[in-house]
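Posted in: Structural Biology > Protein-Ligand Complexes

Title: Requesting predicted complex, 2-acetamido-2-deoxy-beta-D-glucopyranose in pocket

I'd be grateful if someone could produce the 3D structure tokens for the following input. Sequence and ligand are given below.
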Amino acid sequence: MRSIIWAVGRALLVGLAAALPAPHPAPAPSPTASFSFNPIAGLTKGIEDQIASIASQLASTQPTKTPDSIPDAVSTLQDIFGPKPTGIITIGLKFLTSGLQVDGLDGTTLDSPPVPGNINSFNNTNPAPPTAVFPQANPADPPFTKSEDELRSAIFIPDTFQGMGNDTVKPILLVPGTGTFGGVTYQGNMIKILQENPSIGQAVWLNVPGAMLDDVQTNAEFIAYAMNYIASLTGTQVSVVGWSQGNLAAQWALKYWTSARTSTKQLVAFSPDFRGTIIADAFDLPLLDAIPVPPAVLQQQSTSNLIRTLRATGEGGDSAFVPTTTLYSAVFDEVVQPQEGTIASAFLRDDRGAGVSNNEIQSVCPGTPAGDFATHESMLFNGLATALALDALQSGGVADPGRLDLAAVCAELAHPALDVADVAETEGTIPLAALNALEFRPGVTAEPAIRAYAL
Ligand SMILES: *[C@@H]1O[C@H](CO)[C@@H](O)[C@H](O)[C@H]1NC(C)=O
Ligand SMILES: *[C@@H]1O[C@H](CO)[C@@H](O)[C@H](O)[C@H]1NC(C)=O
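-- Reply #1 --
Done. Output follows.
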């Protein structure tokens, strides 16, 4: 049954992606009909006006109801997705009216950037590391294009972090995905879960200027620097947890910064797109070909030069560089596709014997609350995905579903440390990412060049 739903869903998604580039002249949308607003059909005014209008809806749409429990939130999501998810602008607007939103956008968007001290700040004051990690931690490392000040300021270290020069603390670096900062991405999931389980590890996170919408190669510089910086600061290897592009960019960092492989204990990858996605253009706007888009959007198309370069044989990025756990939802990731079985964009090989555990939640616990419907972002709170992530972090290697009480964790829609507000906050990263993608400047009409070190 699942594979039938999946096949139909995928056909519709491919059709949607194929239908996107052509602008269709059509009547202007009714200003009151934001719920049924069809951005593809709306392109009669200036495109910039259209973008501004959609951005303003994403920034100001108020909920008409709020979910009263986690099951209610998840069933609302299922209703919004219906038989097929549309692009993230259309579903994002529905998230907002349904109360699946970030509580207050100040400091989370590119147009209202975080002030220093905010959990999303990329202007943080962090101490110099005991050992130099810039301009290179290792003579084989490629050059950075960003200054050490910019790279170091993007790391947010909460006051509660005890790992400075204290190698009994296990440091965990949280890396966000396209369109979001680390604080807002993880506050309703891994930050809170780890606060309840500090012996598993203590979190720091990245807030990359541009919210990961800029060149993925630049995003990777922030990650490579942070891996080496946190390892130096704490005196122990850092565990890296990523969401979505955060994993693709981390894999790029690990491929080219060999020093970072030494600094990194493991990668735990929620909804990664190591193969890009066939729906990177699923903004349900004729953005591609019509207007410039954020570089990271073009680079995450499955056919991009970036993806091809990452995966090229030799030091192939289709294989793990450090022990890696992948966590993915075949039904229904509205951003990364394909996301099923061994053809999943999330799926990594293990040609170098680093250690890999690939986990499609629907295969680990089919037909259970945690092993059924899960979106790209709900993987961050999903009971099974979070239990596997904690298992990997606790072991220091890769996750092993055999170590879990599957009957218990698969019965949990969300990790028990989380409440319905956390779930709503986590879902709210989707309309937020759509808003930031619309606010990002300057866009590009062609993928940025592959950097010389990777040619
Ligand atoms: C934050 O840092 C950026 C450079 O990364 C700088 O342009 C900006 O002015 C800074 N903002 C604040 C509020 O300090
Ligand atoms: C090191 O971290 C541990 C927690 O893992 C804490 O109990 C201890 O007080 C810390 N030591 C120092 C010197 O900060």
